[in-house]
Write a structure and sequence with these properties.
It is a single chain. The chain is mainly β. Helix content is about 10%, strand content about 35%. It contains 3 helices and 12 strands. The strands form 2 sheets. Strands 1, 2, 3, 4, 9, 10, 11 and 12 form an 8-stranded antiparallel beta sheet that branches. Strands 7-6-5-8 form a 4-stranded antiparallel beta sheet, with no helix packed on it. The longest helix has 12 residues, at about 1-15. The chain starts with a helix and ends in a 7-residue tail after the last strand.
């Protein structure tokens, strides 16, 4: 029993706190939720929720922090069309998405099909609320050097307290 406790203490010590400032990860993470993300390098896995610095600069504005889910790994082809994601030609099954985010929705019907190819050390990240998310579809793949950590615990609000299952899902 000591090993899991020691692992949790180690995670707590090496974690940083972040606040979710939009609804793009709902229902997994909602606006106002507060989470802990453990810093440390990859390899990162598909489905993990990560915190990262914005991959672009806005003159005169502070750097923002984003919380999104990893969809594409390094050196993969990501094809996005009408809400469906294909990785290297295979449909990605996303059981963590809300029902209205899978397949074609009104907001996604206007989005044109696009393909991205990630380079070594790059990840493709998306919000779970695809119609209301600023993510890799807007700014492209994100370099691993911008990652601040993986989300492992939602601690606020207390009624929503939950530990990440290890597969990136709450």
């Amino acid at each position: 029993m000591l090993a899991p406790f020691g692992k949790t203490v180690k995670r707590l010590i090496s974690s940083a706190r972040y606040r979710v400032d939009d609804g793009s990860m709902s229902p997994a993470l909602r606006h106002g939720d507060q989470v802990l993300a453990v810093s440390g390098g990859g390899p990162y896995r598909r489905g993990e929720v990560v915190v990262f610095k914005q991959p672009f600069q806005v003159p005169g504005a502070p750097t923002q922090v984003y919380i999104k889910r990893i969809i594409g790994l390094p050196q993969e082809e990501i094809f996005f069309d009408q809400g469906m994601v294909r990785i290297n030609g295979s449909v990605l099954l996303e059981d963590y998405l809300p029902e209205n985010a899978q397949g074609l929705s009104v907001g996604q019907a206007r989005e044109t099909a696009r393909i991205w190819i990630t380079d070594p050390g790059e990840y493709f990240v998306l919000g779970d609320q695809r119609e209301d998310s600023r993510d890799s579809r807007n700014f492209g793949p994100v370099s691993e050097i911008l990652f601040l950590g993986r989300v492992w615990l939602r601690y606020w609000p207390i009624r929503s307290w939950s530990i990440n299952s290890g597969e990136g899902q709450f």
